[in-house]
Amino acid sequence: MLGLIQSFADHPVYDVMMVFFAMYPLFTSIMWAVTAIISAFRRERSSKLDFYEVPEEALPSISVVIPAHSEGRIIASTLERILELDYPDPQVIVISDGSDDDTVEKAHAFLTDERVTVIDKRVNEGKAMAINDAMVFASGELVLVMDADAYPEPDALRWMVPHFIRNPRLAVVTGNPRVRNTDRLLGKIQAVEFSSIISLLKRAQVVWGRIMTVSGVMALYRKSALQDVGLFVHDCATEDIATSWEFQRKFYDIRYEPHAMARMQVPPGLRSLWNQRLRWARGLAQVLRRNVDIWKSWKNRRLFPVYVEAVLSIAWAYCFVILTSIWILSWVLGAPLLGATPVPTWWGMLIGTAALFQLLVGVLMDRRYDPSVTKYYLWAALYPLIYWIQMSIITVIATPSGILRPKGPGTWRTPRTSE
User: Fold this and answer.
1) Are 204 and 31 spatial neighbours (Cβ–Cβ below 8 Å)?
2) pTM of the model
3) Which pairs from 269-275 meet CB under 8 Å and 24+ separation?
4) Whole-number Å distance between alpha carbons of 260 and 283
């Protein structure tokens, strides 16, 4: 075993892996932070607020679609907040997808409001199929898709709709999801993540030209664009990523609107977090496999940076797991230590500092919209320790199945029921 480890360490591939492992997080942290700052400077200055001024008579009609699977505990409070949206007469459609609790009964209590429609599907076919089935009943020119556990801010639509009026090639505006359940440690860390990784990366990708994915928590779609791409992709683990790529393959635009916020629940425990991120990683691999042919046409060049960055992030996860496993094995066998130590050293501290810088940039950008996120930065140091290890292992596990099976069933289970 020692001879095998040493022979690998003497191979040039080992040197390349070590350099890539060390340099990739430094480079990407700086790149994401700088391009996100550029995006914020272009689009989020107070001088740009006249962009959002739209006369009432020019507002398009909107349908709100809420797919739900066994959400009886929260569907009523979600509907209460949906009906408080500051927008003239939105149609609200709740579609229960094979729920085995009282979701339908709780939703039926709102049928006294003529804006509300409730659809009871008896078979669980997945979130994407539920949304697609609801589209038959959606009368709005724009369709707001909301997770059943998300509470939109009352002014969310006022921030999102002007994008469609200004840009006829716009397919979807993705909102700014904020973490609601921050009472536990993982919730606090994810509050920082959604500002410093997810929101910051969307800002950066706008500068690159294309966005990896909308936030499935809350996004506003142009109905005609959805119909043009055949509605939501239903045979993928992550319908939001897959459908985002369908739009952009047809040269539609996607925009991120940080003012449009929705308060959501995130996995509170490691088990549900693991299951969620396993699905995300598998879905990303499926999308990369399904869109590998983008390289055949120069017309898709604006997707190239997003694709390359995703592939490199997967490669880094494999480097992390392989090199750390070599170090642990060397340590256990009492041999000279090779690979990458999981115990932070000088270089590890440098990588950690770059990560904290990126996290700080994201928090500072989003505190304008959600001041409460600032206090959670105190927990940011745990992000690399908890998330990098877990996400690297998840990526290594999920990627092969996503590549080998780019299509799969879309049934779902509400993660909160697993806690």
Assistant:
1) yes
2) 0.90
3) 269/184, 269/186, 269/419, 270/186, 270/390, 271/418, 271/419, 272/415, 272/416, 272/418, 272/419, 273/186, 273/390, 274/390, 274/394, 275/415, 275/418
4) 25
Going by the DSSP 8-state scheme, the letter that residue 418 receives in this structure is: G
Tokens of residue 87, six digits:
């927008």
- Per-residue pLDDT of 147-186, as tens digits, reads 999 999 999 999 999 999 999 999 999 999 998 888 888 8
Let me know: does 239 contact 410? Beta carbons within 8 Å: yes
Comparing CA positions, the residue from 394, 356, 400 lying closest to residue 378 is: 356
Instruction: Give the span between the Cα atoms of 256 and 116, in whole angstroms.
Output: 28
CA atoms within 13 A on the CB side of 201: 16
- Mean of the pLDDT values across residues 7-16? 80
Q: What type of residue sits at position 206?
A: V
Name all contacts of 53-60 with Cβ < 8 Å and 24+ positions apart. Answer: 53/162, 54/161, 54/162, 54/165, 56/88, 58/165, 59/87, 59/88, 59/161, 60/140, 60/141, 60/142, 60/161, 60/164, 60/165
pLDDT in tens, 363-397: 888 888 888 888 888 877 777 777 778 889 999 99
Give the lowest-confidence range in 65-79, 134-148, 180-194. 180-194
User: According to the model, what pLDDT value does residue 381 have?
Assistant: 76
Tokens 């809350």 correspond to 218
Nearest to residue 215, comparing CAs of 229, 228, 197, 236?
197
Whole-number percent of the chain with pLDDT over 90 = 52
Q: Minimum mean pLDDT among 18-32, 131-145, 196-210, 336-350: which range?
A: 336-350
* 6 has pLDDT over 90: no
Q: Please calculate the CA angle 133-137-142 and round it to the nearest 5 degrees.
A: 100
Sheet holding 253-264, edge to edge: 116-121, 91-97, 62-68, 142-146, 218-222, 170-179, 253-264, 151-152
* Amino acid occupying residue 269: G
For 201, other C-beta atoms within 10 Å of its C-beta total 23
Q: Which two tokens stand for residue 216?
A: 């499935």
